[in-house]
User: What shape does this take?
Amino acid sequence: MKKIAILGSTGSIGTQTLDIVREQKDIQVTALAAGKNIRCLEAQIREFSPEVAALWGEEDARSLRELVKDLPVRIVSGMEGLLEIATMPGTEILVTAIVGMLGIRPTIAAIEAGKIIALANKETLVTAGHIIMPLAREKHVSILPVDSEHSAIFQSMNGEREHGNEIHKILLTASGGPFRGKKREELKQMRVEDALKHPNWSMGKKITIDSATMVNKGLEVMEAKWLFDVEPEQIQVVVHPQSIIHSMVEYKDGAVLAQLGTPDMHLPIQYALYYPQRRNLSGKRLDFYQLSGLTFEKPDMETFPGLKLAFQAMERGGNLPTAYNAANEKAVALFLERKISFPEIPELIGICMEQCRFAENPSVEEILATEAEAYALIESRW
Assistant: This one.
């Protein structure tokens, strides 16, 4: 039995990971962690029988303890709970699907404990890639990407670097989101409901808004730099509205390798859990006879400045990606609360990137301090 723990088990990636557990039958769930969805976590505990489960708040954890007091499961809470789950003896793979920079400390702890990381928490590498990747190399720990785009790149690179084949560039595809083709003036009128209507993918609210602003693609650009050890100028974003090609790699000889598939997260999740093995996976398959065509466009970074800001943050480095990420988290929350307009999301990111104190090689404490500083800057305006 393959033994896994899941941070963020009640979210989109977490629930789809559990779909794979149901289908494959040879995975044991040792631990589950969620934010505050008590009822969903209770149902997961009853179905998958983990040894340990966590909720962020201790009050919620107390409520859950009462609900599952008939089961042999230990309920923990807070960062201590996440760290305990991340380092549990016997767990082979930690699926990090938790949202935000909460994932940094558990990921570091899991690497130090020798766990394989199935990474779905892009903020971890965006803000702390300079800490995470050297540590993973030192501990000989694999970090397997779960994002569809990064999984596609990973699959397209499989075996190439071992043979000395050099990458020329990474072609990171983007659907363009629900506002592809619109101009800046039109975006001022876009409501929360409009931004949540992604044309291809079914995702959580935060990542769906990030897709609409193209900030999600900016975060993926920064994550790709660390995952695949490339320079910023080697990463190119290509808008591909059909979401059939999930990303591509161009090599020095001009060959381009791509990974194609339906827009379904189950495949990259399962690939990370069983790498390098490919297992049968139920679900829709690509039918090339039914495809009307595949199209590609250059991203409009003037209309969607969040992507341009991401390249700027990546090129300067330090704690600037943290300011970018933290400002976006706060701005998206304000937009979902209908307190700011859609174009104000990248505006607030730009303000925080300019005003947060710069740190060249930030520690985890400095990363978290930058997050707090960005939050405070935005909160001072509302």
About this structure: The radius of gyration is 20 Å.
